[in-house]
Design goal:
- With 389 residues, the chain is mainly α.
- The chain has 2 domains: 178 residues, Growth Hormone, Chain: A, CATH 1.20.1250; 193 residues, MFS general substrate transporter like domains (Growth Hormone, Chain: A), CATH 1.20.1250.20.
- The chain is built from 18 helices and no strands.
Amino acid sequence: MLQSRIGGFPRAFWVLFGGTFVNRLGTMVEPFIGVYLTQARGMSLTAAGLVMAVFGVGSLFSQLIAGWLADHVGRRATLTGGTVATAACMIALGYTTSLSGIVAAMAVLGLVLDAYRPASQALVADLIPAHDRPRAFGLLFWAINLGFAVAMVAGGALAQSGFLWLFWIDGVSSLVFGFLVWRAVPETRPERGHDTGGFREALKDRLMVVYVVITLLYAFVYLQAYSTLPLAVTGQGLSTAAYGLAISVNGILIVIVQPLVGPWLNRHDPGVTLAVGMAVAGAGFALMAFVSTTAGYASAVVVWTLGEVITAGMGGAVVAALAPAHLRGRYSGMFGFAWSAGGLLAPLAGTRLLTLGHSVLWISVGAVGVLAAVGQLVISPAIRRRSAP
């Protein structure tokens, strides 16, 4: 049983797995950056929002640039370079007091913080055979969520003693991740002679472009949980603690349930499984139109978390199936771009919908989730044909 879950992967994958876990274990700045800017640096909510928007724009371009670097320079160099740059930016941001310095640090941080993702995804696609990729991506998903769950609890406690601790821990964990990859993961990028076409070739792949749009729709739905949901909860007279309690169900379920159902899910078609997960997630968000208590929100979180568990690992597996070997970094960058764009759109459109009404927001978000699921189901046969060889 244990062998079916974690056996059969090369040592390089487990180094990547361990580094990813350590990196997420130290992810303490990003979840609390709004609190840091307003409380430690005395910014207004508007000013803090603008600074975070600068970070979001940097993140949007980060995935495309990092995807190009992963194919052009190499997976190992891109991942290590991104983590070292992240560590430097974290420390600089922790000590910067001027507004211009904070804006500059946040802009660069947006560019480098998640630059490791396209390289990491390309590494998995290079190292793991196609039939085992959903399992590999699922394990990375589990490591990310376990590390992040611990980081949220520890970060909240450490912030009481001073935010500078968060910046140092985040920076050191990034350095550890980069060091592990540099020392123990071989370069897997195809020979430079095959590095042709670039993003122009990727953008000509209509199936991939459609998949990116579908991913953006799903990202818009899922990221409401961390942008508009806290506002909706407190807007109904509940406390921020109620939101924290409800959202904690997400991490607990993922850590417990995903390892149990992962092997069974991995035996099914990734495209169809992804569509089912999107539909369940959309239904879970739509359910929040009908709740107004902490228990009600927690119940809705259970439903959309099950959808998230179903999709775990499938998104990366689909990208790996669609991407030619010499363009895996760029395809992963396009996939990451969809998530970054969703992260920008989620609070912008979500807050606007919330002003129209609580039910309007969640019914609309649920409908977008179902739309993404339908789109994913439609393109699943084409994905299956592409990955058949």
